[in-house]
């Protein structure tokens, strides 16, 4: 009798497991997040974000998205020329799309090479120049 009951539990467990992918997929689709839900900040202040690798690819798109949502974004790139060009592209797009009204902007302070501690120290010391008031 115990073996039969155990087999019943195993079969029941396998049925439950077989439904999990559908249930997980249903739950994710039910609770979709909007992009604006992910970046919440006080309306009275301009938040600051530092994005590494922001001259191309995912870093660039992240910096652009944050700037469109009203963030002051500091682009942290190894190349000064590429960083300044990316900041210019982001700011031009913000001006064209009318997002400057929200207060977002992209700026490039100095090159940052994360493999060099001297470069990280220099960047951290320059980070105060981003225009944010310190308490």
Helix content: 40-55%
Shape: elongated
The low-pLDDT segments are none
- Percentage of residues in DSSP E strands: 5-15%
Largest sheet: 3 strands, parallel
Structure description:
The chain has 135 residues and is mainly α. Helix content is 51%, strand content 10%. The protein contains 4 helices and 3 strands, in the order H-E-H-E-H-E-H. The protein has helices spanning 2-30, 57-68, 80-97, 117-126; strands at residues 48-52, 72-76, 105-107. Strands 1-2-3 form a 3-stranded parallel beta sheet. Helix 2 runs parallel beside helix 3. The longest helix is centred in the N-terminal third of the chain and has 29 residues, at 2-30. The model has no long low-confidence stretch (mean pLDDT 75).
Summarize the structure.
The protein has helices at 2-30, 57-68, 80-97, 117-126; strands at 48-52, 72-76, 105-107. With 135 residues, the protein is mainly α. Helix 2 (57-68) runs parallel beside helix 3.
List the defining traits of the structure above:
mainly alpha, 4 helices, single chain, 135 residues
List the helices and strands and how they pair.
Layout: H1 2-30, E1 48-52, H2 57-68, E2 72-76, H3 80-97, E3 105-107, H4 117-126
Parallel strand pairs: 1-2, 2-3
């Amino acid at each position: 009798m115990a073996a039969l009951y155990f087999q019943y539990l195993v079969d029941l467990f396998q049925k439950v497991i077989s439904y999990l992918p559908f249930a997980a997929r249903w739950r994710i689709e039910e609770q979709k997040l909007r992009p604006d839900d992910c970046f919440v900040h006080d309306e009275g202040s301009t938040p600051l974000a530092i994005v590494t690798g922001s001259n191309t690819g995912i870093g660039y798109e992240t910096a652009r998205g944050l700037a469109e949502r009203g963030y002051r974004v500091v682009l942290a790139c190894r190349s000064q020329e590429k960083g300044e060009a990316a900041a210019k592209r982001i700011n031009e797009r913000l001006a064209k799309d009318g997002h400057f009204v929200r207060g977002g902007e992209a700026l490039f302070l100095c090159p940052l090479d994360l493999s060099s501690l001297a470069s990280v120290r220099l960047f951290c010391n320059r980070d105060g120049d981003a225009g944010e008031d310190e308490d």
